[in-house]
Design a protein that fits this description.
heterodimer, A: about 110 residues, four-stranded antiparallel β-sheet, about 0% helix, globular, B: about 120 residues, mainly beta, eight-stranded mixed β-sheet
C-alpha cells in the first residue's frame, strides 16, 4: 500500500496567518492527490483535487501544489471557519489511502 | 443539487453481516462511481472499495477482500455495501461518496451523511 505521511499532526495558528500542511507519498503517485476538510461530526469535504485544482465553490484562500512525491496544502489567510481536520488522499493505487490528518486550531 | 442519503444506524453482534444503502439524487447515477469509506472514532478515513454505477465493475481494498460486497440498483439510483463476519473493530461511521470517473474514479466530490455501525455483543 502507498503510505501517505502528513505533517504536522496538529497546528495552532492565528486568524489571518498563512498555514501550510505537507503530505509525502511513499512512491510516485503523479498528481493523483486530493485534500479534504473534515469538521467534527461531519463527512469530509473535497477542497483540492489532482494536487492543485480548487473544487468548485471552495474559497480561493485554499491552494495545493506538488513537487515529486511531496505535496503542499496552503491556507493563505486563516479564517475562524477553517478550524477542522485536513486529510490528504492518494488515488494512484488501490487501496486509496489517506494521510493521518492535521488538526487545525485557532491560537 | 447532488445528494447522497444513507440508511440509518445499525447495531450488530459479532459474526453478523450489515447491509448499508446510499440513495443518490440530483445527478445521473450511472455516470459516476460510488466509493465506500469508513472512519473509526478518532482515526483517519479508510477506503473500502468502489463501484462503477454504470456497468457495475467493482474494486475492493484487499484488507476487506472476501468480507465486503458493493452493489447497485440503477433503477433506484442506490448503491449498497454489505460487510460480513463483523467484529468489534468494524465499529465505525461508514460513508458513501461519489467520484467522477476519469479512466478510474477520481476525487470524492460529494459524500453521504454517514451511517454509524456498532458491533457489540
Amino acid at each position: 500500500d502507498i503510505q501517505m505521511t502528513q505533517s504536522p499532526s496538529s497546528l495552532s495558528a492565528s486568524v489571518g496567518d498563512r498555514v501550510t500542511i505537507t503530505c509525502q507519498a511513499s512512491q510516485d503517485i503523479s498528481n493523483f492527490l486530493n485534500w479534504y476538510q473534515q469538521k467534527p461530526g461531519k463527512a469530509p469535504k473535497l477542497l483540492i483535487y489532482d494536487a492543485s485544482n480548487l473544487e468548485t465553490g471552495v474559497p480561493s484562500r485554499f491552494s495545493g501544489s506538488a513537487s515529486g512525491t511531496d505535496f503542499t496544502f496552503t491556507i493563505s489567510s486563516l479564517q475562524p471557519e477553517d478550524i477542522a481536520t485536513y486529510y490528504c488522499q492518494q488515488y494512484h493505487n488501490v487501496p486509496y489511502t489517506f494521510g493521518q490528518g492535521t488538526k487545525l486550531q485557532i491560537k | 443539487q447532488v445528494q447522497l442519503v444513507q440508511s440509518g444506524a445499525e447495531v450488530k453482534k459479532p459474526g453478523a453481516s450489515v447491509r448499508l444503502s446510499c440513495k443518490a439524487s440530483g445527478y445521473s447515477f450511472s455516470d459516476y462511481a460510488v466509493n465506500w469509506v469508513r472512519q473509526a472514532p478518532g482515526q483517519r478515513p479508510e477506503w473500502m472499495g468502489w463501484i462503477n454505477a454504470g456497468h457495475g465493475h467493482t474494486q475492493y481494498s484487499q484488507r476487506f477482500q472476501g468480507r465486503v460486497t458493493i452493489t447497485r440498483d440503477t433503477s433506484a439510483s442506490t448503491a449498497y455495501m454489505e460487510l460480513s463476519s463483523l467484529r468489534s473493530e468494524d465499529t465505525a461511521i461508514y460513508y458513501c461518496a461519489r467520484a467522477p470517473i476519469v479512466v478510474i474514479p477520481s476525487a470524492m466530490d460529494h459524500w453521504g451523511q454517514g451511517t454509524l455501525v456498532t458491533v457489540s455483543s
